Amino acid sequence: MIKRTVTTLFPPPTGEVSVWMDATPAATWDLVSDVTRIGEFSPETFEARWRRGYDGPEVGAKFKGHVRRNGVGPTYWSACTVTACEPERLFEFSVGTDGTQVNNWGYRLEPKDGGTLVTEYFRLETSLPMRAYWTALGFLRKRTNENGMRTTLERMKAVLEEGQA
User: Fold this and answer.
1) Rounded Cα distance, 135 and 150, in Å
2) Could you tell me which residue, 71 or 48, shows the higher pLDDT?
3) Quick check: 126 and 33 in contact, CB under 8 A?
4) Are residues 90 and 116 in contact, defined by beta-carbon separation less than 8 angstroms?
5) Which of 5-19, 99-113, 144-158 is predicted most confidently?
6) How many alpha carbons fall within 13 Å on the CB side of residue 96?
7) pTM, 2 dp
8) Closest by alpha carbon to 59, among 29, 89, 92, 101?
9) Beta pairing partners, 118
10) Residue 86: C-alpha distances to residues 58, 96, 133 (Å)
11) Left, alpha or beta for 63 (phi > 0: left; psi -120 to 50: alpha)?
C-alpha cells in the first residue's frame, strides 16, 4: 500500500509517444539515429552534431544538441552520449556530462503491419533534485515533452512516407 501511494504522489519521471510509419525499420532507423537531422523535426532541438572523433551512432558516441527550451528560449548546447544502439530496433542517448546525467531519450522501432511503429520516449534520472523538479513542475514538462515528441514523430513520418529520407 505504501509503495502504491508513493508512486501515485511521485509518478515516475517518464513519458512516451508512438506513431506508426509506412516505412521499413531500416529506413526509419537511418532517420532516427542520424542526430544531425534532428533540427528538421524537433520543436526544441534545432541542430545537433557529432563531437570530434564520432561520426555515427554507436554506444559511447558523443554528440551535442543545440536546444531552444520550449521552442522560444533560452538557447543552450546539451552534451549527449549514445547509451543503446541496436540497428532497426533501439536508439537511446543520455543528456548531461559523464558525471551528471539529467535525462535519457530514445526511439524504439517495431515492425508492424508492413511498416514501423516508432516510440519516442524520455526518462529523467531519479536523483532527489530531479524528483523534486518533477513533483513540482513535471506535469507541465511531461505535456511539453509529449507534444514535442508527437510533433517530431509526425514530421519524421511525413519525410519517410514522402520518400525524402
Assistant:
1) 23
2) 48
3) no
4) no
5) 144-158
6) 14
7) 0.86
8) 92
9) 19, 109
10) 9, 22, 32
11) beta
Angle (CA) 25 28 30, round 5° = 110
- Which single residue is written with the C-alpha cell 551512432? 57
What are 64's three cell numbers? 551535442
Residue 165 CA to residue 158 CA, distance in Å, equals 9
Residues forming beta bridges with residue 84, ordered by sequence position: 92
Residue 29 has a CB neighbour count (10 Å cut-off) of 23
Helices assigned H by DSSP within 25-94 = 25-32
Instruction: Work out the widest C-alpha separation in the chain, in whole angstroms.
Output: 52
Query: Could you give the dihedral angle defined by the CA atoms of residues 20, 25, 38 and 40, in that order, rounded to the nearest 10 degrees?
Result: -60
- The grid coordinates of residue 74 equal 533560452
| Residue given cell 507534444 in the structure block | 147
State the average pLDDT over residues 129-149: 78
Q: What are phi and psi of 50, to 5 degrees?
A: -65, 140
- Would residue 95 be called left, alpha or beta, if left means φ above 0 and alpha means ψ between -120 and 50 degrees? beta
Q: What are phi and psi for residue 121, nearest 5 degrees?
A: -145, 160
